[in-house]
Specification:
Structural class: alpha/beta
Strand content: 25-35%
CATH architecture of the largest domain: 3-Layer(aba) Sandwich
Organism: Isobaculum melis
Low-confidence stretches: none
CATH class of the largest domain: Alpha Beta
Radius of gyration: 22 Å
Keywords: ATP-binding, Nucleotide-binding, Transport
Number of helices: 10
Largest sheet: 6 strands, mixed
InterPro entries: AAA+_ATPase, ABC_transporter-like_ATP-bd, ABC_transporter_ATP-binding, P-loop_NTPase
Number of strands: 13
Domain ABC transporter: 8-234
Shape: globular
GO molecular function: ATP binding; ATP hydrolysis activity
């Protein structure tokens, strides 16, 4: 199997603003065809990290690389292979949906056929002639995402891409991101939505007060903190029962299986959010 290329790398990144240390010795890599979740509450350093990787901020110490280039030396050729979606990614409100993308397609030398193709993918084709200012928040976010991937970038940075969106719109964006990943794109996703990260991410880094406090696949991290091993069952009479993982429980479950006595059974490992609260002592907001 061919080893996947590292498209983003952070080596001992630290960033201070005066006496405030926003990031402390961050080390991380993102490969092609991978979604990395950089997770933490507001103010934990997620957006600062994206700005450092993309050359908008200089680190106080350490080095960041994107597509093999130091973030402090990124040139136009590298920027042409990057897409960014952030909370201040604007669109031209007086232009139509189509013309917003046509404008950027011209700048990025993208064929016009790509516009209709992408509008269909993000569910905005029927709104192509609508002024952007008339779009709902969810539609506007999909337009921003379409603009960010218009040129098929190798690396995509997403800063809270589904914040405030309805579940249907969020699911559509999730499906698009998975498709992009499967086509080799490296996606750096920041969010405080642990459920979203569990669904999408190959690896996650839990960030707290500028430190990475946990790293691994979502499943690995949850199992690492599965200290009270239990089973949760719903019986045929809708009674819910939680039992410890031991020999007596195994015998009881075996009996229920033989007698077809229960509807569902689940293990009770903690969620990413539970792990985060345990590790940091903080609730996500």
């Amino acid at each position: 199997m061919t080893e996947k290329k590292v498209l983003i790398r952070l080596d001992h990144i630290a960033k201070s603003f005066g006496s405030y240390q926003a990031l402390k010795d961050i080390n991380i890599s993102v490969h092609e065809g991978e979604i990395l979740g950089f997770l933490g509450p507001s103010g934990s350093g997620k957006t600062t990290t994206i700005k450092i990787i993309t050359g908008q901020l200089k680190p106080t110490s350490g080095e960041a690389f994107v597509l093999g280039k130091k973030s402090t030396e990124i040139n136009e050729l590298v920027y042409e292979q990057i897409g960014i979606v952030s909370d201040n990614s604007g669109i031209y409100e007086k232009l139509t949906v189509y013309d917003n993308l046509r404008y950027f397609a011209k700048i990025l030398a993208v064929k016009k056929e790509r516009i209709d193709e992408l509008l269909k993918i993000v569910g905005l084709y029927e709104h192509k002639d609508k002024p952007a200012e008339k779009l709902s928040k969810g539609q506007g976010q999909r337009l921003v995402l379409a603009r960010a991937v218009l040129h098929n970038p190798k690396v995509l940075f997403l800063d809270e891409p589904t914040s405030g969106l309805d579940p249907t719109t969020a699911m559509a964006i999730h499906q698009l991101l998975i498709s992009l990943k499967e086509n080799g794109m490296a996606i750096f996703l920041t969010t405080h939505n642990m459920e979203e990260a569990t669904k999408l991410c190959d690896h996650v880094a839990l960030l707290n007060e500028g430190n990475i406090v946990e790293f691994g696949t979502p499943k690995e991290i949850c199992l690492r903190y599965n200290e009270d091993k239990q089973f949760r069952l719903v019986l045929n009479n809708q009674e819910e029962i939680t039992l410890p993982a031991n020999a007596a429980t195994a015998e009881q479950i075996k009996e229920w299986i033989v007698n077809d006595t229960f509807e569902t059974i689940h293990t009770c490992e903690p969620t990413l959010e539970h792990v985060f609260v345990k590790v940091t002592g903080k609730e996500l907001r």
